[in-house]
Write a structure and sequence with these properties.
CATH architecture of the largest domain: 3-Layer(aba) Sandwich
Strand order of the largest sheet: 3-2-1-4-5-6
Shape: elongated
Strand content: 5-15%
CATH class of the largest domain: Alpha Beta
Order of helices and strands: HHHHHEHEEHEHEHEHHEHHEEEH
CATH topology of the largest domain: Rossmann fold
Number of helices: 14
Largest sheet: 6 strands, parallel
Number of strands: 10
Distance between the termini: 65 Å
Helix content: 40-55%
Structural class: alpha/beta
CATH superfamily of the largest domain: NAD(P)-binding Rossmann-like Domain
């Protein structure tokens, strides 16, 4: 084995006192406990060599390093006294260090966690128009990754302890608890995403959220087709059956693999120079009540309107005389700048 590799491996195995603080807050305690066990083992072995039985040697070692020291056991010789002095110097320090680190890990670690939690809740209290994401499993992680890449601010709600460095805004607890949703700033959020793996929990949260925030946009995950109509009745705006979508995508990859890959790339914000985006038609905006040709979208912005969503259906390739109404949504194709100009002209 090369010398440098051997030295690096030896360095990586050095204990806390040599290498510095480990990431685990309990690392110093385990290092101290290991040193304490080593001192007890050395003390027991030393007293046993000085004439005590193993039980007597262990007892003498423990009462020495704990500074209890009832009385010496066995014949006290000069070697006995020297060994006891050394054991006191090393053993008492190790015992006190271990006890101090244990207290610090129990109280300061808990205190730091509480301080971080309160600081995070204060940050969440200042958020508005954010996305509340309930559930951080495989589906939730994919949702968080895409929305964060798009620049959206998210608050994740999950019953598990999550990495606060990875997620700047986390609320721990059951998403079915009203107080947890309030702590996540649901009343100030623009969107609620239900990514739990239980249709019952998603349905319950949707009912609660809709009663708390009538204007909230809610997207819910569904694991069965029978749950979709119930979720819509509960007030969910969009329902996504992850199993059905996954199966449809796999079938599309079999039938038209290149087309399917291209459509997937189209939805990635930074992959292509052109992209698909949606632009709502506001009731007080310049597009409402006007024909598509009169809006001059293609001439003024360069973006192309591919479809118009009205209620629950799409009008694909709308004609020039198609009159836009309030709450319509334009589905347009264009560059980032062109789509930005379209939003500006629409008053978004």
């Amino acid at each position: 084995m090369p010398v440098k590799l051997w030295m690096r491996r030896r360095r990586d195995r050095l204990p806390y006192l040599v290498r510095g603080a480990p990431k685990d807050p309990w690392g110093r305690f385990w290092a101290g406990l290991g040193g304490l066990v080593l001192v007890i083992a050395v003390g027991t072995f030393g007293y046993h060599r000085l004439g005590l039985t193993v039980g007597e040697a262990l007892y003498q070692t423990v009462i020495t390093i704990t500074t209890v020291g009832y009385q010496e056991i066995g014949t006290v010789t000069d070697d006995y006294r020297v060994f006891t002095i050394l054991l006191i110097l090393f053993g008492v320090g190790t015992a006190l260090y271990t006890l101090g680190v244990l207290i610090e890990s129990l109280f300061e670690g808990r205190l730091d966690s509480e301080i971080r939690r309160r600081r995070m809740l204060k940050q969440i209290d200042r958020l508005s128009d954010h996305v509340v994401l309930c559930g951080f499993g495989q589906v939730g992680r994919a949702i968080h990754r895409e929305l964060a890449a798009a620049g959206r601010t998210l608050v994740v709600v999950d019953r598990r302890d999550l990495d606060e460095e990875e997620l700047p805004h986390v609320v721990g607890g059951e998403a079915t608890d009203d107080d947890v949703l309030v702590s996540a700033g649901l009343e100030r959020a623009s969107t609620l995403v239900l990514a739990l793996d239980s249709d019952v929990d998603n349905l319950y949260i949707a009912l609660t959220a809709r009663s708390m925030c009538p204007g909230l946009f809610i997207v819910a995950r569904s694991n069965s087709s029978s749950a979709e109509p119930k979720l819509r009745q509960a007030g969910v705006d969009r329902v996504v059956n992850t199993h059905e979508i996954g199966g449809t995508r796999m079938a599309a990859l079999v039938l038209e693999p290149d087309v399917s890959d291209f459509l997937g790339v189209m939805m990635q914000a930074d992959q292509l120079s052109v992209r698909l985006a949606e632009t709502p038609v506001a009731a007080d905006g310049p597009f409402a009540g006007r024909a598509l040709a009169a809006c001059e979208i293609d001439e003024s912005t360069g973006a192309t309107v591919l479809a118009v969503r009205r209620d629950d259906s799409f009008v694909t390739d709308p004609p020039d005389d198609f009159v836009l109404a309030a709450d319509d949504v334009l589905i347009a194709l264009g560059t980032k700048d062109q789509l930005a100009d379209l939003n500006a002209r629409a008053g978004v």
